[in-house]
What we know:
The structure holds two protein chains of two kinds. Chain A is 0% helix and 48% strand.
Amino acid sequence: EAGVAQSPRYKIIEKRQSVAFWCNPISGHATLYWYQQILGQGPKLLIQFQNNGVVDDSQLPKDRFSAERLKGVDSTLKIQPAKLEDSAVYLCASSLEPSSGNTIYFGEGSWLTVV
Amino acid sequence: AQSVSQHNHHVILSEAASLELGCNYSYGGTVNLFWYVQYPGQHLQLLLKYFSGDPLVKGIKGFEAEFIKSKFSFNLRKPSVQWSDTAEYFCAVRGDSSYKLIFGSGTRLLVRP
């Protein structure tokens, strides 16, 4: 079974530039998550999709971050303009319906360095 | 709101030593509890999970965890660690209302050969 795919794996940009990350979840997984993991910290949930609708985006900095999942499958996360503190690993994860019995699977992450 | 605390940020052990990593959570309702592991350069992988039933759960690679509801704890244990267990370990909790998976800050384990 193919896992959660993410690209690019690594990105270095200057502050105030923009960047986009792409995620392809495991086939059949209706729920998709984007997490931000800053060095030395645990992953923090940015946004959760159920199919193509947003379930939770309470911790997404909406002035600069946006995410979409137009067809309920792939998703993109965009940062514009980037700040130094956005340097982190951006993790995409997916699961079946968000009931108590389903495990969340993570991709390898997209490493962002803002200089 | 749910939260997770991992008290040990760095742990250094010699091979064959026993391991216990602490995890405490805060949530008023029914929870699902998880331990994820992240080996150097790899993605997060599920180590074990607790949903219901027997509070002592066994995971992969000889790891186990015990859910103690009265203490809001879900500590991870392994009787004898190996060098290959060197990794970062994350405890996570998901509440039954929002299904948000919230992570602790992680514990970095270094096992010396």
